[in-house]
Amino acid sequence: MNVTKETMDLMRAALKSGSADLAKAITVSSGLTYYDLQAPAKNLYPTITKLRNMTPRVGRPSGYGTQANWKIVSALTGSGFDAMGWIPEGQRSAAMSYTTANASAPYVTIGEEDYLTFEAESAGEGFEDLNATLSMRLLQKTMRKEENGLLAGNGTSSGGIALGTPSTPTLSAIADTSSTLPSATYSVIVVALTCEGYLNCKGNAAVGFTPSKTITGMDGQTYTLNGGNSNKSSNATQATVSGTSGLGCSVAVVNGAVAYVWFVGTSGSETLQAITTVNTAYFNTALASSRQAATTVSADNSQNATAFSGYLSNAFSGGTVTSQATQTITAANTGVGTPLTSSGHGSVVEIDNMLETMWANYRLGPTVIWVSSQEQKNITAKVLNGASSPLLRYDVDASGDAGFSLTANGQIRYYYNPFTGGGTDVEGGGGDKIPVIAHPDMPPGTLFAHCAKLPEWYQSNEVPNTAEVITRRDYYRTDWPLRTRRREYGIYAEEVLAVYAQFALGIITNIGNG
Description:
Radius of gyration: 31 Å
Distance between the termini: 80 Å
Strand order of the largest sheet: 14-23-20-15-19-18
Number of domains: 2
């Protein structure tokens, strides 16, 4: 039937007249409604790149080669007695000596890829520019992976550290009347995790971790990445009594580790039961079933040859490293580890000791302290206690209202370093305030300090930065040739984190929560 404009006009007029003969049962559920789609899409994911934003980024003017190279002069040793400059009248001094070294770090490639089908491109017309937003999200994900690399990367070259094989764990039966752990002789195996390993599994014992993964690239070729775990330890065994004891476990601290994986069961059938950020664990309930088996681990997968080494690896391999002591496991503390210690006068003992060590050995102090949200909360609790007075602020209304409001809670934004500061003159003394910054990728139980710029008493005019991202080729997008009915894109960067002064890094690990 040919429906003309005149016919439609007559239909509208009839409907307006309220004719019962023409009434139709059309409701919202019929779907004959306008589709209110807001553009563009809401990007509800975080893109936090604090380390990347704060680390100086420099390029090479020419002659890139395969690696960044630099010379280090780390000490000047005076002739005779190093601390004495006395010379007899009319005579000459002997020659002083130098401590030098060559250093290098190979360039590596980081990147991410995505694609856009022809149909998606057509369907998105009028909604958002999918080509542009795809590139934006690609860049954001590449920068997030770069952030993880700057913090946690663990390469096989300079600055990297292999976890090796943990020592055999120590087990004990702990008196615990609330224990429901079935009576048995339990076997325990330990695997240590780097920061990358912890981030890959997010500390989730139910999910477990992947020792290595083979990735098939968009070009069809494959490559393998190690997941960031040590080899597994030898097993230890311990008998427990149901209803009267729990199983306490500890292992020697592994340098470079931020977490420990505990495989528990009968000998030969150990499965993953806990991931802790301290070197102790405690079990007083029945073991979980259907968990990852210890047999999935057969090698040290803590490093990757295609990676550069991040700040934490460099701190472990050459910085000021402090690990909290293993706490005696009892039913009361259930193996939570040794927490930070309040000094009683508004500071933390372990942080004070790290600051003093960095000053005594290298005559510098951190310009920033990076922490997890857990450690930021714990540091605040240690500093803002009854001895140092709680932090309460009274807000009085500007109108002169007699009432007032309370702002509860507080946060340590700065930590005072009494050992440094000031400059080279007498009047310049007095210490420094160090920003304390929570980083979303910092594992609980770890604290990392960094002196980003050498103090003025170093000859730092030409090398003020203690670490830099050196780019052989900074972020670039590749539009790959069409081979199917979709457009394929990649965003890459060729770079390395060059840590010139590992001694400018400090790290405290194995921190208990409390």
